Amino acid sequence: MAKTIFEKNSSGRRGFTFSNNDVKIKLEDCIPQKYLRMNNAGLPEVSELDVMRHFSELAHMNYFIEKGFYPLGSCTMKYNPKINETLVRNKGFNDLHPFQQEDTIQGALEILFELQSMLAEISGFNQVSLQPVAGAHGEFTGLKVIKEYHTAKGNTHKTKIILPDSAHGTNPASVVLAGFEVVEIKSNADGMTDLQDLRDHVDENTAGFMLTNPNTLGLFEKQVKEIAQIIHSVDGLIYMDGANLNAILGIVKPGQIGFDIMHYNLHKTFATPHGGGGPGSGPIGVREDLTKFLPVPLIGKKRDKYFLDYSHEKTSLGKVHSFFGNFLVNVRAYIYIKMLGAKGLKRVSENAIINANYIMKQLSKYYDIPHKDIYCMHEFVASGTWQKEKHGIKTLDIAKRILDKGFHAPTIYFPLIVSEAMMIEPTETESKETLDEFISAMIEIAQECLENPDLLKNAPVDTPVKRVNDTLAVRQLNVKYDGTSQDV
């Protein structure tokens, strides 16, 4: 176990020495007495080198995309090009202020205007708002557009949003937050939306339908036009959760196959930083007649000038975020799209699909894969049911053992409609060599289930922190150093 920074304390050691204070004013005259520290802060006394080595050691105990493979289904943890990080640190971006006059930020507005246009072109929608700053935030904004649409038409009875049972967990939460009721329908035997169950639940109170396409099983919902016809027949709107857009770039335009609204996850599909709670960006695209409900402002262009467009303010749902969204996250996505172009974006999806199908095929002899006879898109769902039934090994045990093999674990126990689920998404940025190493590790784990099941039940055994009590950690989270603990 690594030592804490406090355990590296050596009395009298300094990393930095302040010059003598020649200010004559007393501290009490600057800061109210109630805010002054009464006791020594108890900070560790260490050298600069001690500090650097300590935090470098902690960093390497963590897991990050430059360290290894993240087969994290539906989260698209792909590599973020470092050129993006270099360019967004330019002073021209970082020294901007949102209250500046429009004529002083023409370059920034041009980027946002072009990003709006490129995202609309990629998806087949009429207009895009860049304001939402996360996928779920985009869902909420899209659902508010649905609410504004029905309110404007006097459809006060439109209170229900239908979701498939394979939906992302944020979908029902966003529905409730936007003021609607959740109606869940079943998936059919092929892992697709059950059209008959959908018809049975659609009525005059249906405001809309939310669908992830490809869905969370990694399967493309081919019957979208039929779904759209069913929903549109009662004047409902069909919303696409764009979390899995990485699978269809340059192949399918959601706005042209029946969807009315969609959010994009720029922090997944377009390789901006992802993880650790942010930063994120979840723009939404809409069909033409819904543009008037989008948050204000949009970015407009008149002749050769760019401006903040408030022209639809009277019909807009308002603002969903201060200023113009997460600006530098949007700039990163802009750079990514510009670098790849239309052909490059299509190759992104083609390679993601090839990688996922390659892993699925190689692992089909060792794990139960519910829909292995259907080509998957960018991800697939395997199951540990064999291992659990024959050897008492849970999917959680398999995931913990994957850590010992040097890989991040995939998403587990989701979607809920697959028992002992493991959702595996390789993305397009991983090489065949990396995929082969992961496949070999998964096959080795399947063999260990037969030969040494106790090893998996006690995994991980080679990581800095061994298996923790997940339930206790959630209920009694303690990340404060109390001065007595000998552990990290």
Overview of this protein structure:
With 488 residues, the chain is of the alpha/beta class. The chain has three domains: 50 residues, no CATH class; 257 residues, 3-Layer(aba) Sandwich (Aspartate Aminotransferase, domain 2); 128 residues, Aspartate Aminotransferase, domain 1, CATH 3.90.1150. The chain is built from 16 helices and twelve strands. Strands 1-7-6-5-4-2-3 form a seven-stranded mixed β-sheet, sandwiched between helices. α5 packs parallel to α11, α6 crosses α7 and α11 packs across α14. The radius of gyration is 26 Å and the shape is globular.
Name some characteristics of this structure.
488 residues; alpha/beta; Aspartate Aminotransferase, domain 2; Aspartate Aminotransferase, domain 1; seven-stranded mixed sheet; 16 helices; 12 strands; 11% strand
Describe the secondary structure blueprint for this structure.
Blueprint: H1 27-30, H2 48-61, H3 82-88, H4 91-94, H5 106-123, E1 127-129, H6 135-152, E2 160-164, H7 170-177, E3 181-185, H8 195-201, E4 206-212, H9 224-232, E5 237-242, E6 261-264, H10 266-269, E7 284-286, E8 298-302, E9 305-309, H11 327-363, E10 380-383, H12 385-391, H13 395-404, E11 411-412, E12 421-424, H14 432-451, H15 453-457, H16 470-475
Parallel strand pairs: 2-3, 2-4, 4-5, 5-6
Antiparallel strand pairs: 1-7, 6-7, 8-9, 10-12, 11-12
